[in-house]
Amino acid sequence: MPRWKLVTEFTFDSAHYITDYDGPCGRMHGHTYRVRVEATSDRLYPSAHTPHPVMVADFKTLRWAKKDVTEGGLDHAVLNEVLPPEYATTAEMIAKYIHDETKRRLPEGVRLKVTVWETPTSWVEYEDA
Ligand SMILES: Nc1nc2c(c(=O)[nH]1)N=C([C@H](O)[C@H](O)COP(=O)(O)OP(=O)(O)OP(=O)(O)O)CN2
Ligand SMILES: [Zn+2]
Question: Which residues participate directly in catalysis (predicted)?
Answer without folding.
Answer: 25, 76, 118
